């Protein structure tokens, strides 16, 4: 971790990342943004997870327990204080490998709360840009309209509605073996093939239907770093595909041992290899790699507008379990190729 990303966590310090927010603005009820340290962390987290439909204290304790056991950074926690010093809303920015950060924010419960939550989100984005973060992102439930409006007002754009799919992994649910046409071969990824992996991924991003709005926003090296940091990286579960010795595609799988699941991190084909049934064979190949492993499920997320991919995954036993709306905000101008 670079020094620029080290943020001191004082018990209750006013953030200096955007000093003009130390003073009230007209119509904001004399509110201001403060950075939260241990002294008021529990209170701030309660505001963060509150939906008005349950025990905020219990939900806050569960969140803090999860953060401790999973090494989730909490130095990117800010709150909005009203004119009476009451903590009203919170936002948490969690940086990830690959120069991204996931943002979590309080749920506005009325239209009047959208702007203060948006200013809080905007403040957090301005701060994490100094942590060597290029892209901020958030995942919301489809029905959270006020929540969505707050992020949009803070400069986020709606990227896609994602469908999360799941498939049981068991002896009674074994996949069909891949049937490779003549001229195709697979190769297990190795570190010395990193340049080839980058080349293949960049080809698969061309004319993609899966979150096309991400194309060109990130360097491919950062995307790969993010993939490797998802769950537990195991090179034996990363496969490169060639057609007549031309780089043609890849399937990347990462296990989550603590949750007994495997995530399909990425599956893609170069334009010349599409429409030939290779996507199904590549998916079946990936599923075959999971035979005999201790994990119980395979999961993945896919853009719901990517109808060919949705049809492919469902044909191999993947079933939708939940939907989320993905929003993103670039934090600096990008010149590299790549996507998610």
Specify the CATH homologous superfamily of the largest domain.
Answer: Gcn5-related N-acetyltransferase (GNAT)
- Helix content range: 25-40%
Instruction: Briefly note the CATH topology name of the largest domain.
Output: Aminopeptidase
Tell me the fraction of residues in β-strands, as a range.
25-35%
Count of the separate structural domains: 2
* CATH top level class name of the largest domain: Alpha Beta
Task: State mean pLDDT (0 to 100 scale).
Answer: 87
Q: How big is the Rg?
A: 22 Å
Low-confidence stretches: 1-29, 334-340
Number of helices: 8
Note the overall shape.
Answer: elongated
Pairing-aware structural class of the strands and helices? Answer: alpha+beta
Output the strand order for the largest sheet: 1-2-3-4-5-6-13-7-12-11-10-9-8
Q: So, CATH architecture of the largest domain?
A: 3-Layer(aba) Sandwich
What keyword list fits this structure?
340 residues, alpha+beta, Aminopeptidase, 13-stranded mixed β-sheet, elongated, disordered C terminus
């Amino acid at each position: 971790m670079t020094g620029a990303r080290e943020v001191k966590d004082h018990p209750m310090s006013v953030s200096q990342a955007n000093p003009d927010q130390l003073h009230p603005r007209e119509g904001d009820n004399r509110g201001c943004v403060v950075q939260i340290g241990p002294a008021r962390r529990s209170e701030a987290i309660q505001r963060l997870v509150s939906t008005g439909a349950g025990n905020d204290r219990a939900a806050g304790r569960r969140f803090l327990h999860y953060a401790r056991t999973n090494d989730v950074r909490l130095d990117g926690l800010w709150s909005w204080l009203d004119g009476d010093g009451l903590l009203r809303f919170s936002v948490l920015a969690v940086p990830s490998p690959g120069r991204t950060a996931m943002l979590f924010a309080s749920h506005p419960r009325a239209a009047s709360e959208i702007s203060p939550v948006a200013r809080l989100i905007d403040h957090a984005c301005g701060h994490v840009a100094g942590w060597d973060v290029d892209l901020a992102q958030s995942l919301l439930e489809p029905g959270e309209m006020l929540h969505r409006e707050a992020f949009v007002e803070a400069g986020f754009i709606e990227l896609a509605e994602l469908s999360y799919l799941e498939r049981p992994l068991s002896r009674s649910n074994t996949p069909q073996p891949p049937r490779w046409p003549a001229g195709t071969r697979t190769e297990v990824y190795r570190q010395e093939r990193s340049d080839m992996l980058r080349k293949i991924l960049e080809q698969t991003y061309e004319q993609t239907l899966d979150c096309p709005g991400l194309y060109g926003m990130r360097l491919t090296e950062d995307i790969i770093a993010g993939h490797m940091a998802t769950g537990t990286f195991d090179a034996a579960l990363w496969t490169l595909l060639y057609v007549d010795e031309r780089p043609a595609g890849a399937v990347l799988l990462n296990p989550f041992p603590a949750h007994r699941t495997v995530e399909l991190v990425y599956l893609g084909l170069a334009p010349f290899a599409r429409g030939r049934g290779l996507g199904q064979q590549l998916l079946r190949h990936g599923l075959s790699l999971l035979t005999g492993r201790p994990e119980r499920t395979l999961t993945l997320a896919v853009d719901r507008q990517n109808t060919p991919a949705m049809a492919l995954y469902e044909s191999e036993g993947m079933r939708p379990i939940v939907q989320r709306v993905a929003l993103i905000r670039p934090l600096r101008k990008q010149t590299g190729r790549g996507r998610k």
